[in-house]
């Protein structure tokens, strides 16, 4: 048994405390100076302490991070972006272990210790993206814990053979399988969802459907996904990512859809993109529906943006939703930390006994100050192991 004491920190801005970690798990949080002696001790110096950030929606296989700058392609629609990516990824060697490792290092540098990542599975790459991502995680000694979703970025039905690849991915240990715009991309929403739900039921995987379609077309697909979830054994195991339509509906229509989402236990993730409608996140919270924050792609053929800092995504979320009170700003940081636990299949995540000891120390006055300034991460622990010190990863 190994005991580590992280002393003199301020969990969530509370009075100074000591965090006691035993074999990589938080066992006690006690007033500063009262922790028993351990095998090792780290002085937190009065830093603000937060749980490790949870990136609930990433695509770490797509990035060209570490390679020379790649100009954006100018593609506007989802279909055009898919085509542009497919036409240029081979010259960049995407997917590859080096770029994926570099992206994971950036996530870790900013305090992210757990990630749900979508990994492309298609007729061009087959399943090799899954292997590349696993190799990259191993190169960092699994300092970033990954939950992998096999993702059919190029569509499901319009590319015969993709359903078979998703079946193989699920059989090989992927935690989830994905779907994308059943109506506008495959143009057969019923058949796409039938195929995906059947695989998820057979293998006990989670299901994460990217839904970019807007307005009533998007709402229609929400309803189809809800119907399938209620008709199967997947309640509480389905996520709708992006889901822009939910924020665009009239209030009474939103309320109706929120009630049905709660009945089916369907969660959501967002990357808080600019120029989209705010989501009814208080309604999701009041119904106990998880909402996770993610970076989406980082420096890839869809977009040149992103640095891996989930605090910046959380700030974008706060701005998009017009939030300014300390209470609301703190709630947004909760979305980026403890609120992400369901998306990486953790029953507990936080600075509480029984949780994996993922801990981030920052020089900030309080949580709102950390959100607004996004200061350098002074120390990051993953499973009780120091993995970042003074902003520099120690792993990989």
Q: Can you tell me about this structure?
A:
- The chain has helices at 78-88, 97-109, 128-139, 162-171, 189-203, 215-231, 245-248, 251-264, 281-286, 310-320, 326-336, 367-373; strands spanning 3-11, 17-22, 25-31, 40-51, 53-58, 112-120, 145-151, 176-180, 206-211, 238-242, 267-270, 291-293, 359-362, 377-382, 385-389, 392-393.
- It is α/β, with parallel strands linked by helices and 396 residues long.
- The chain folds into 2 domains: 3-51 and 350-393, Urease, subunit C, domain 1; 53-344, TIM Barrel.
- It has an 8-stranded mixed beta sheet, covered by helices on one side. It has an 8-stranded parallel beta sheet with strand order 5-6-7-8-9-10-11-12.
- The mean pLDDT is 96.
List the topology elements.
Blueprint: E1 3-11, E2 17-22, E3 25-31, E4 40-51, E5 53-58, H1 78-88, H2 97-109, E6 112-120, H3 128-139, E7 145-151, H4 162-171, E8 176-180, H5 189-203, E9 206-211, H6 215-231, E10 238-242, H7 245-248, H8 251-264, E11 267-270, H9 281-286, E12 291-293, H10 310-320, H11 326-336, E13 359-362, H12 367-373, E14 377-382, E15 385-389, E16 392-393
Parallel strand pairs: 1-4, 5-6, 6-7, 7-8, 8-9, 9-10, 10-11, 11-12
Antiparallel strand pairs: 1-2, 2-3, 4-13, 13-14, 14-15, 15-16
Helix pairs in contact: 2-3, 4-5, 5-6, 6-8, 10-11
